Amino acid sequence: MLLELQWTSNDQEPQIHPFTARSGIQVQLPNNAGAGDYLSLFLTDEFFDLLVVQTNLYAAQYKRDNPNLPPNSRATAWIETTRNEMKKFLALALVMGIVRKPEVSDYWSTNPLLKGSIFNNVMPRNRFQSILQFLHFADNSNYDATDPNHDRLYKVRPVIEYLVSKFKSNYIPEQHISIDEELLLWNWRLVFKQYIPLKRARFGIKMFSLCETTGYLWNSYVYLGKEPDVATTDLQMVGRLGKSGAVIPRLMQDLLGKGYKLFVDNWYTSEELFSYLFENETTACGTARKNRLQLPASLKTPRLAKGEHAFRRKDNMLAVQLNDKKEIYLLSTMHKANVVDTGKRDRHGNNMRKLQLINDYNKYMGGVDRNDELLSTYCCVRKSMKWTKKVAFHFIEEGVLNAHILYKKSGGRKPL
What's the longest Cα–Cα distance across the chain? Predict the structure, then answer.
C-alpha cells in the first residue's frame, strides 16, 4: 500500500537543471588548424618524451641485467632512441592498423605481393622491432610484484593518466553523455581478466568509459578486479550507491552540478543512483532490472500487449514498463511518459511513434559503442603484444580518435 501511494499514475513535467558547462574545445588552436594540430593536443612532445625516457631506461636495465647477451642480438646493438624516432615508430604502428598484414616483418618484405615502400623509407625493420621490444612506460626498479598491495597498472599507468588528463582538459562534452563498459580483447592469463558475453571480444580487460554521443572519450579507467579503490570517498560511494552505481560519480566527478543528461544501461540504473545524480543537478535515463526497482504491484503484474506501456511517477522519477518483444523497464528523471513521432515510417507507410524516453535513450546511449566501432576499424594492436603494451596502444588510439572527432567538429574534411 505504501508503494502505491509513493508511485502514482499522475504524470507531470520533470524538473530539468540548466546546462551550465561551457562545452567545446578548451585550448587555443592556430588559425586554419590542420589535422596534425588536433593530434598534437593529445600526443604532445611531453608524451613522446615520457616514452623515450622510459624506453631508453628499460633497455639499459635489460642490458645491465643480462651481461652475456649474444653479439648479434637486438639488445646488444641497441642505441638510445629519440623523440623524433619515437614519433616515426608510433606513426608506423598506427599505419599497421590501416594496412593489415599477418606479421610485423611482412611490412618490410621484398616480396612484390607484400611490399610496402613507406616502411623501408621511414625505419629499418630491425630498428622498429627493437623499439617495440623495449617500449616501456614506467621505471621497473620502483616496482615490486611480490608486494600484495602493488599497483596492478603500474607499468602502464603513466600513459593512461597522461592521456585521460588530456582528454578531459582539451574538451568539455556536450549535454548528452553515456557511460558503459569497454572490453579490450585478452585471452591469456591475467588476474583481472573479465568475461562479458554480450561484448564482441567476450574475454579481456574491462574499462569503464564516459563518452559523448559522437564517440569522444572524455574519461575512462581500467577495472582491476577489486572495487572500490582504497580511497575513503570510493568506500562511501559504494556504501550508498552499490559497486555499479559508484562507477558513475567516479567518471563524472568534474561534470556533476552542471546540468548534464546521462544515459546508462541496466547494470548501473537504480533509484539510489538517480536520486544522488538529481541532488547533484544531473538528470539520468536508463534501462532497469525489475528486481532493483521498488515498484507497486499494479505496475509489475499486468501483462501488457506488444507495444503497450504503463508508467508510475514518484516526484521527479518516472518508471516505465514496456512490452517490446520482451518486458522492459526504464527509469528516468528527465522525461514525461509522452509519445512522439520518430520521423520514420513502418512498412505500411504509417508514422512510427515511440515514448520520448525510448527515443532519447536510443539516440544518446550509444556513445561508448560508437567509440568502440570507430576504433575497431583501424585497430593497430597485435595479438602478440604484452597486455601492458596492448592497453597503452588502446589509449593512444583513443587519443588519435578524439583528435579526429574534434577535427571533424571544427569543419575539417581531410583524413587524419
Answer: 83
Strand locations in 128-175 (E): 171-172
For residues 368 and 180, the answer to whether their CB atoms sit within 8 Å is yes
Q: What is the pLDDT along the chain (416 residues), one digit of tens a residue?
A: 556 667 888 888 899 999 999 999 999 998 888 999 999 999 999 999 999 999 999 999 999 999 888 988 888 999 999 999 999 999 999 998 888 888 888 888 888 877 767 888 999 999 999 999 999 999 999 988 888 888 899 999 999 999 999 999 999 999 999 999 999 888 888 888 888 887 777 889 999 999 999 999 999 999 988 644 455 457 788 888 888 999 999 999 999 999 999 999 999 999 999 999 999 999 999 999 888 777 777 777 667 777 788 888 988 999 998 887 788 899 999 999 888 887 787 777 777 778 899 999 999 999 999 999 998 888 877 666 789 999 999 999 999 999 999 999 988 765 54
The Cα 247–Cα 210 span in angstroms is 10
Q: Which DSSP helix (H) or strand (E) runs through 377?
A: helix 367-377
Instruction: Show Cβ contacts of residue 217 under 8 Å, excluding neighbours closer than 6 positions.
Output: 167, 209, 210, 211, 371, 398, 401, 402
281: left (phi over 0), alpha (psi -120 to 50) or beta: left
Residue 102 grid coordinates: 599477418
Write the DSSP assignment of 250-287 as a string of letters. Answer: HHSTTTTTS--EEEE-TTT--HHHHHHHHHTT-EEEEE
Neighbouring C-alpha atoms within 13 Å toward the C-beta of 282:
26
